[in-house]
Amino acid sequence: MKHDTEKYRQIFASMSPEAVEEMNQKNDDEHQRQATAFKEGYKKDICYLCGKPFKTISKENPCLHWLLRQCKFKKKDFPKIYKKYGYGNLAAFIRWCANQKRLHSSINDLEEEKSDRKVLSYTVKWKNIEWTFDCSKNDFIGHEGTTIDFPHYHFQMRIDGRQFINFNDFHVPFTDEDVFVLKNSLEQGDCFKHNFGAIGSGMQDAVTIDPDLALEYMSNADEDDATYHLSTTIEAIDKPIPGELIDEIRQESLETGKSMTLIAKEKLKGIAIVKTSISPADSIPDIASRTEHKRR
Fold first, then answer.
1. N or C: which end of the chain has fewer CB within 10 A?
2. Which alpha helices (DSSP H) does 44-126 contain, by range?
3. DSSP state, 61?
4. Tens digit of pLDDT for each residue in 166-175?
5. What is the DSSP letter of 3?
6. pLDDT value of residue 293
């Protein structure tokens, strides 16, 4: 099914602000309902979709929780999952699970690390499992004249670093809803935006937040659990900064959990210029790469 995204732009543009707000509110309410149900089930190791424990598997009722590999899920059963659930649902479930363990930094969806040739390219880590979604522009169009002449993506799954599902094992079809959402996001991104909600956000959302706001809410963390890496320089304005003041800043950081950068900005105001660079933590997962094969 082809989607004329310009047509949808015109539809959105013709809607009143009140109608747009109502539509967005309905989407937000439905997302919140599902997110709440998911989190309540996750705490009990129960899937909110099927109502069964993560450790159970029913071949007659495929479910996304199989991908957590707490049950005896096998690679050959993956088509049962993607034939029932579209990319949007599958990706959301995985991302939501990952963020229950480590917010943002378990999902490397950084745009700067994605090739211009890709529609999708990101890796999600949860416990001992890593999943990667990959879709080139050619995949999204479909490879004309072949048996895979339909919009699709590739999926990789690693358990303890070992192969489980490889990129070339399946050409996973997008649903019509997936194509609609992705095409509009790509072609009409100024008026149509798609995300996975607060509990599905990854590092791209984390690095686009206002730096001052990020500093205000940051707390110290071990490198393995960190979302950000801070690099701070302090330049005295008129006279040297007393060492006792630096020690005081360091001690307050240890006691309160606030970043030294935030405390330094407050205590050294008018005394020094504090500059900070915020970047993703080194411990975020690498995006697994896929080798694309040329077709003749």
1. C
2. 78-82, 87-101
3. S
4. 999 999 999 9
5. -
6. 56
